[in-house]
Design goal:
about 350 residues; DNA polymerase, domain 1; TIM Barrel; ten-stranded mixed sheet; 14 strands; binds S-adenosyl-L-homocysteine; binds iron/sulfur cluster
């Protein structure tokens, strides 16, 4: 699918620059180094949308910045709120016309922002609406951060957690994802504690090793979704390349190297992965790992990929409960607002086609 328009200025997005890039730029412009920090704070701590508003900079510098860069914000195309105000989902248009989604999830006192890392995704998981799009392009660090700044502005509050669980596979856009998380998890930048930022991967093993070796301070989640290689290959083609045993090996490497917990996401799909036997195998394979398990009933309108009945879900959950670990069952939040990733996008495309006919 081609982008529809590209009418933004040619100016570079300043949100794509790291604090080190800003420092180098200030040096090049003959400005003192502390200016970089002032710009950085103006953009992320205070969320300014114009250089004019960063009043601790000189007028000349503000002008020069304005001539060179733009402070981008996403354009809101659609937004849907679930009936009980538990989730709010946004569809944004990027400056070149592509569209991405983000979600706000309210759970008690927690406000979680779920953000996208790519436009679409190349990995084609069968139960996932984003998978059906294929990969259209990677997001830049600035475009990932824009989602957070935009939603903070809308709710006039900051998130308590950020999860990279929107569209895309973060480990296939590694540099941009880490660059954005650095800004979001920097006390002098956006200022969220790094452990409150979770990168979720479908199991791209080299990315997990890299993440561990670089000692990234962010949290890590793996979407396991099946404990049987044959089934996993069927629902997650990436499993052909990276089988379960090797994936768990990488997970162990990460937990041992970092001393931290890993989260296993497990989307319950009726007829694929939700029997008591599956639950027992899941415990067997993961109990010796420092981990927690998130069980998520599938949320999809595809008749092939349905969540199991309430009873089956309860049995699964009970069987996975090994007391030593935290097991959470996410409610089917936002079912009525297409809250699984890629679904609002798909809904919007459908509507667009209809209105053309
Ligand atoms: N690509 C990464 C992150 C984005 S997907 C990954 O796969 O982990 C984020 C989460 O949404 C994953 O755990 C994925 O399994 C889950 N997911 C995808 N489609 C879903 C659906 N229809 N219902 C419930 N969860 C879904
Ligand atoms: Fe991509 Fe994750 Fe969706 Fe799989 S579940 S297609 S990896 S976004």
């Amino acid at each position: 699918m081609k982008p529809i328009e590209a009418k933004e200025t040619d100016k570079k997005s300043i949100l794509d620059l790291s604090v080190d890039d800003l420092r180098a730029l200030m040096k090049q412009w003959g400005e003192p180094a502390y200016r970089a920090r002032q710009i950085y704070e103006g953009l992320y701590k205070h969320g300014h949308k114009s250089f004019e508003a960063i009043t601790n900079l000189s007028k000349d510098l503000r002008q020069k910045l304005n001539d060179t860069f733009t402070i981008r914000r996403l354009r809101q195309v659609d937004a849907v709120t679930s009936a009980k105000d538990e989730t709010r989902k946004f569809l944004w248009q990027l400056h070149d016309g592509y569209k991405i989604e983000s979600v706000i999830i309210y759970e008690g006192k927690r406000t979680t922002f779920c953000i996208s890392s790519q436009v679409g995704c190349p990995l084609d998981c069968k139960f996932c609406a984003t998978g059906k799009m294929g990969l259209l392009r990677n997001l830049t660090p600035g475009e990932i951060i824009e989602q957070v700044l935009q939603m903070s502005e809308i709710i006039e509050n900051r998130p308590s957690n950020i999860v990279y669980m929107g569209m895309g596979e973060p480990m296939l856009n590694y540099e941009a994802v880490i660059a954005s998380a650095r800004v979001l998890g920097d006390m002098e930048g956006f200022g969220l504690a790094p452990r409150r930022i979770t990168i979720s991967t479908s199991g791209v093993i080299p990315g997990i090793y890299r993440f561990a070796d670089e000692e990234q301070p962010f949290s890590l989640a793996i979407s396991l979704n099946s404990v049987d290689d044959e089934v996993r290959k069927q629902i997650m083609p990436i499993s052909k390349k990276y089988p379960i045993e090797k994936l768990l090996h990488a997970a162990r490497y990460y937990t041992e190297k970092s001393g931290r917990l890993i989260t296993f996401e497990y989307v319950l799909l009726d007829k694929f992965n939700s029997t008591q036997q599956d639950a027992r195998k899941l415990v067997k394979l993961t109990h010796s790992l420092k981990s927690k398990i998130n069980v998520i009933p599938c949320n999809s309108d595809d008749p092939l990929y349905r969540p199991p009945s309430k009873e089956k879900t309860a049995v699964f959950r009970e069987s996975v409960n090994d007391r030593s670990r935290r097991i959470t069952l996410r409610k089917r939040k936002g079912w009525e607002i297409q809250a699984a990733c890629g679904q609002l996008y798909a809904e919007n495309e459908k509507r667009k086609k209809k209105s053309k006919n």
